[in-house]
Specification:
heterodimer; A: alpha+beta; 18% strand; B: alpha/beta; six-stranded mixed β-sheet; four-stranded antiparallel β-sheet; 8 helices; globular
């Protein structure tokens, strides 16, 4: 029999058992849809957790001034004013494996612009600051090294400040006044939301630390130095080099600084990532097993109940291969049809979860391929194998089969 | 006279599946000429169905030779046997064995779809299937599903399917076994008409009156042929049908008279 005829026979067989065909395809649809949806939810959650952790900054090392003590009363970390811009410059120049480094001076000031005023954090930082904090610009640009060196009166502002002071205007290019000094606004940062401690991170104005020290706060020390190591493996090395360098610069005086790493955070991060991966794998595996067994059952039942049909076909002159090819084509058609609809259902269900439950979802290509691959293989195998057995029967035995 | 279409010499069938081998057919020799109309008869267990399955190439003999249209069945493999069934034999089963939820026409077309040697178009297949349905008087039921047809009609569809590839021999295994006496006569009428057109028919039956429609009766007992005779005073389906109609009309008249 020609292939086209077998194809026709297979199509007729599917059509005349519409309900059975739909049920079979449904098994595959649900199997694939379930895998895609659950993996999409898992992946979405994983990406969200990773993004939250990454927003804190990665491979971060902070240098804080040591504690001060006067008259037997000891202040906490950062209470002494011993960290200098020169320390920062030395670290930036001499410690290897650094991706970004920025000093930070914290202060609060009343600012004035556009006829409005607002009390906010005015922090002096270096040009690397947005990079180190993993905090890109939404519009405009960060100030440059040149502007830091020339004590330029420029700034970038956070989202909250932009909203408060320039409610209906584009703040870029405008001027705001700090201590009555005009600072030109170069850019606006992307919204970062609330910090781990609950304060609004976007309520901030960043100016060059040099301008901050000379023109605004007139301080001689800086509050902290943030360093981003080039790689997670280099964190310890960078920490040691920094400590060595600062100790050297103290020339035998007692160390008045602390270098801390995000080790705890990165441990948490790694553990979380591993948990999520294991969770995802488990979900995918269970869905695959459930879906696969569904497909297997419906295929086994439908082919077994058709043993008699196979007997009739062979009795009136079909070759075993004709019957096999017919069942193979049926199984492939159902798998492809069910697979396509299953992918659509998976995407659809993921969208629904995102829309109604606000959970982020992401459909990774591997889950689609895995789900379709496994379901198709199971569908075809269990559609084919019982048909193969039936086609090997003597036609009279197959005919007597009830 | 041309060579016989079926030549069987000392054929045996032994089933080895149980603990004790069953010797179902013990040495049957038989020649069937073209145009014959034979009834195989016998009690259950006499081996008639086994002989029928071997005649139909659904089963192989354990010993002996079987030449169908001059071809030695023993030398063919599974697929060649399937082709032989497709080209030279037509089947009518006791339980009809039509494909469910498939129209009468598509059921009749089926053997032609598996026809390997002839190149025919879909429309030629349709035409031929329609013609066969006309022969059995069911052209107006071509689009009906088996479950929309009566038992007699289903069996006639099965006969049309048996005819569609112009077989050398039409084999029927208790074709009237599931039918009432009136539809049985109807089906036998179709067989007689086909036989009159020259088609060789072999059927299994255990009903004497049904065997009487055939031309030759073979009676088997314990796996051997015990009687082989031509039928005297053959029943003619057309006449029997007329008699039945008469009886029915009489019954109705009578019932009518009583009611009145």
């Amino acid at each position: 029999m020609r292939f086209t005829t077998t194809f026709l026979v297979a199509l007729r067989a599917l059509r005349r058992n519409t309900m059975r065909s739909i049920l079979t395809a449904l098994g595959i649809i649900i199997g694939i849809g379930a895998v895609i949806t659950t993996v999409a939810m898992g992946t979405g959650a994983k990406v969200q957790v990773e993004a939250q952790i990454a927003s804190l900054g990665q491979n971060l090392i902070t240098v804080m001034p040591g504690s001060s003590s006067s008259g037997g009363m000891r202040g906490g970390f950062g209470s002494s004013a011993t960290l200098t811009p020169e320390d920062y410059e030395a670290i930036a120049a001499e410690v290897p494996n650094i991706d970004g480094i920025s000093p930070e001076i914290r202060d609060r000031n009343q600012i004035l612009a556009n006829g409005l005023n607002w009390n906010t954090n005015v922090n002096g930082v270096g040009p690397d600051y947005p990079y180190v904090r993993n905090w890109p610009m939404a519009a405009g640009a960060m100030f440059t090294d040149q502007e830091v060196k020339s004590l330029a009166k420029v700034c970038v502002i956070g989202k909250t400040v932009a909203d408060q002071v320039f409610p209906n205007e584009d703040p870029i290019g405008q001027t705001l006044r700090i201590r009555n000094l005009p600072f030109r606004i170069l850019g606006v940062l992307t919204p970062k939301g609330f910090s781990v401690f609950g304060s609004d991170e976007d309520d901030v104005v960043l100016i060059p630390y040099t301008s901050h020290m000379r023109r605004v706060s007139r301080r001689t020390s800086i509050s902290m130095i943030r360093i981003q190591a080039s790689d997670a493996d280099k964190i310890a090395e960078v920490k040691l080099s920094t400590e060595d360098l600062l100790t050297q610069r103290r020339r035998g005086r007692e160390p008045d600084f602390t270098v801390r790493t995000q080790e705890e955070l990165s441990t948490t991060f790694t553990a979380t990532a591993r948990t999520m991966t294991v969770l995802l794998g488990g979900i995918a595996l269970v869905s695959l097993i459930v879906g696969g067994i569904g497909v297997m059952n419906i295929m086994l039942v439908s082919v077994t109940e058709r043993t008699r049909e196979i007997g009739i076909r062979i009795a009136i002159g079909a070759h075993g291969n004709d019957v096999l090819l017919q069942f193979l084509i049926e199984a492939i058609l159902l798998s492809v049809l069910g697979g396509g609809l299953g992918i659509l259902c998976g995407y659809g269900a993921s969208e629904i979860v995102t829309y109604y439950f606000g959970l982020p979802t992401l459909v990774p290509m591997w889950s689609v391929l895995l789900a379709v691959g496994v379901s198709t293989v199971i569908g075809i195998f269990f559609g084919f194998f019982p048909a193969y057995k039936a086609a090997q029967l003597d036609p009279i035995d197959a005919l007597r089969h009830e | 006279m041309s060579s016989p279409v079926v030549q069987i010499r000392d054929i045996h069938k032994i089933y080895e599946s149980g603990e004790v081998p069953v010797h179902a057919v013990r040495g049957v020799s038989l020649e069937i000429q073209r145009g014959e109309f034979i009834a195989l008869m016998g009690a259950s267990g006499s081996g008639k169905s086994t002989l029928m399955n071997m005649l139909g190439c659904l089963d192989r003999q354990t010993r002996g030779t079987y030449l169908l249209d001059g071809i030695d069945i023993d030398k063919l493999d599974r697929n060649e046997l399937a082709d032989l069934r497709n080209q030279k034999l037509g089947f009518v089963f006791q339980g009809f064995n039509l494909l469910a939820r498939t129209t009468a026409l598509e059921n009749v077309e089926l053997p032609m779809l598996y026809g390997r040697h002839r190149r025919v178009t879909a429309s030629q297949i349709r035409e031929r299937a329609m013609y066969c349905l006309e022969i059995v008087g069911l052209a107006n039921r071509a689009d009906h599903m088996p479950n929309q047809l009566s038992g007699g009609q289903q069996q006639r569809v099965a006969i049309a399917r048996g005819l569609v590839n112009e077989p050398q021999v039409l084999l029927a295994d208790e074709p009237t076994g599931n039918l009432d006496s009136k539809t049985s006569v109807e089906v036998m009428g179709v067989f007689q008409k086909l036989n009159d057109q020259g088609i060789t028919i072999v059927m299994v039956t255990h009903e004497l009156d049904i065997a009487h429609y055939c031309k030759r009766n073979l009676i088997l007992r314990d796996g051997v042929v015990v009687r082989d005779e031509a039928v005297q005073n053959r029943s003619i389906a057309a006449h029997e049908m007329a008699k039945l109609k008469e009886a029915e009309t009489a019954a109705k008249l009578l019932a009518g008279a009583t009611a009145a």
